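Chapter review: from sequence to fold.
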Amino acid sequence: MKNTKVPAAETKMLIRRTFKGIVASDKMDKTIVVSVETTKIHPKYQKRFISTRRYKVHDEKNQYREGDKVTFVECRPLSKDKRWRVIYS
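The token string follows.
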């Protein structure tokens, strides 16, 4: 018989997406809207272009204002649209 030993307490490595962007709006309570620019290349024409996406990010202390640079990370769903939280500026 083969030794079929189960490894004790297997640890899972969480891979969370991280983005950097600029705060576009801070009008909501405990939520900021962050604009992230990404440079992409067109598949056919090989031309570079800038794509902008806006994320709703959780800001617990309401400390970030419009124009601030922030870094945010993926987390559990906090509301219908919020799946991100600020880690630092």
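Two observations follow directly from the output. Residues 38 and 87 are 20 Å apart (CA to CA). The mean pLDDT is 91.
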